[in-house]
Design goal:
Layout (H helix, E strand, L loop, with lengths): L5 E12 L3 E13 L3 E5 L3 E2 L29 E4 L2 E6 L2 E6 L4 E4 L14 H4 L15 E4 L2 E14 L4 E15 L5 E4 L6 E7 L2 E9 L6 E9 L5 E9 L3 E7 L2 E7 L7 E8 L4 E8 L4 E6 L2 E6 L3 E5 L7 E5 L17 E6 L3 E8 L2 E9 L5 E6 L6 E3 L3 E2 L3 E8 L2 E8 L11 E4 L6
Parallel strand pairs: 4-20
Antiparallel strand pairs: 1-2, 2-3, 3-16, 5-6, 6-7, 7-8, 9-10, 10-11, 11-12, 13-14, 14-15, 15-16, 17-18, 18-19, 19-20, 21-22, 22-23, 23-24, 25-26, 26-27, 27-28, 29-31, 30-31, 31-32, 32-33
Length: about 425
């Protein structure tokens, strides 16, 4: 195994006490070095290969990677056989059979998403204010959780002005029957996205590195009771790919940059029980979006090659390279390019893609041959922000906004390869006709 290139930096942190005395504390920072970025670790990494086996999926306590995105925001959660979606400031129960969105609030006197008064909005059990960064939704132990920020609005009626004060990020805990919405006692500062899993909350925070003064991303682990909290890593520089996903007993992370000036990526495994972090340097060509599959981990690279490897980062195997042999068959002039998210099941790989935030489309590939066998266009010349494709036994679905309208899309899996496949969609506030 290639030895990690790392070093320790002694940082002097100054504390002013009562504007007179000065306290100085030395702190060691563990740094992994790439060519175009650095990763600061919250602990000394373990370099010996770990003996890891997948312990199985527990619906009540495990983050469901099949419904949500790898380290990215997700608007959709599935729990107790029902689907819930977060669209803008509200959480809805989504009845797929009837194709209706029902605000998750059982108060009979509430106008829900039709309310215009800001004060009364806060009384709706389905209301969750925007997050400062990315808005997420997750099912965990019989409840739904949504990140939001706390704000105070002072209205001056005389001057007809309002002052908004932001008081920090927080989590809402929502009952599945719409009977309650409470503030969860654990605060997630500057939270961009979060994942609850087996007694832990993993989240990314957008911060300023106190050592360099530059913007950075931090990955944190905090127990659901708030008693234990640890920074796992901090990323500075030009890391383009940062994905993490809890799976079984561990948290898995991939950090990489695909520029021609970069040679390496980092694969890391965090053990929340021992607090240890295993880190391994890997070639850039194998780095990419990680996704658990068949009790192993997969990496989808920038070159459209899918690798599969053991959970401890050993025994890498090239599975398949995606290809489009006949783009004209799908009305395309060339192979589709652009940003992407992937999902997989036993037979197919699904890819959500768009170019420069425009023209979203869904592609379906045969997992054995790597050949694209279905291409579904969401719209012509539309601006979009969509999550990765979620998978159930019956449906493919995703949420997001296109042309500034928040929507949910879904496809029936039994008809997904039909030439005239139907792409269903619902808008939060459809145009009145």
């Amino acid at each position: 195994m290639r030895s990690l290139k790392r070093w320790k930096v002694t940082v002097l942190i100054f504390f002013f006490l009562q504007m007179v005395s000065l306290s100085v504390r030395a702190e060691e920072v563990i740094i992994l070095e790439a060519d175009t970025y650095v990763v600061e670790l919250g602990m000394e990494p373990v370099e010996a290969d770990l003996n890891i086996s997948y312990s199985g999926f527990i619906e009540e306590t495990d983050y469901n990677w099949a419904h949500q995105a790898s380290g990215k925001m997700s608007y959709i959660a599935v729990g107790e056989g029902k689907t819930y979606i977060r669209l803008q400031e509200y959480v809805y129960f989504f009845d797929i059979d009837k194709q209706i969105l029902i605000p998750l609030c059982n108060r009979p006197d509430c106008l829900h998403d039709k309310e215009t008064d800001d004060t009364k909005k806060m009384e709706c059990n389905a209301y969750v204010d925007y997050s400062m960064y990315n808005c997420s939704l997750q099912y965990y132990q019989g409840k739904l959780y949504a990140n939001s920020y706390s704000r105070t609005v002072d209205v001056n009626q005389e001057n007809r002005t309002a002052t908004v004060t932001f008081n920090g990020e927080m989590l809402y805990e929502l009952a599945l029957d719409g009977s309650s919405r409470d503030v969860f006692p654990v605060q997630l500062e500057n939270c961009g996205m979060f994942m609850m899993h087996r007694g832990m909350i993993y989240y990314t925070a957008y911060e300023t590195n106190r050592r360099t003064g530059e913007p950075c991303q931090e990955l944190w682990a905090v127990s659901v009771d708030g008693k234990k909290k640890k920074m796992i890593l901090r990323i500075d520089g030009e890391a383009e790919s940062f994905f993490y996903i809890p799976y079984g007993e561990y948290l898995y992370t991939m950090v990489a940059n695909f520029s021609e000036n970069e040679r390496y990526g980092f694969y890391m495994v965090y053990d929340p029980l021992s607090g240890e972090l295993y880190a391994k340097q890997i070639p850039k060509e194998q780095s990419g979006m990680i996704y658990p599959f068949d009790e192993k981990m997969c990496s989808m690279t920038e070159s459209d090659t899918l690798y599969q490897f053991n959970l401890n980062g050993t025994d890498w195997e090239e599975i398949v390279t995606l290809k489009v042999s006949e783009p004209e068959k799908f009305g395309l002039e060339s192979n589709p390019k652009g940003c992407l998210w992937i999902s997989m099941d036993e037979s197919y790989l699904y890819r959500m893609q768009w170019s420069g935030m425009w023209n979203p489309n869904m592609q379906i590939y045969d997992l054995d041959s790597g050949e694209m066998i279905q291409y579904i266009q969401f719209g012509e010349n539309e601006y979009c922000m969509l999550q990765r494709i979620g998978i159930t036994d019956e449906y493919l679905f995703c949420g997001g906004f296109i042309q500034e309208k928040h929507k949910i899309y879904w496809i029936e899996k039994e008809h997904m390869l039909d030439p005239d496949v139907v792409l269903y969609r619902m808008e939060q506030f459809p145009d009145e006709t």
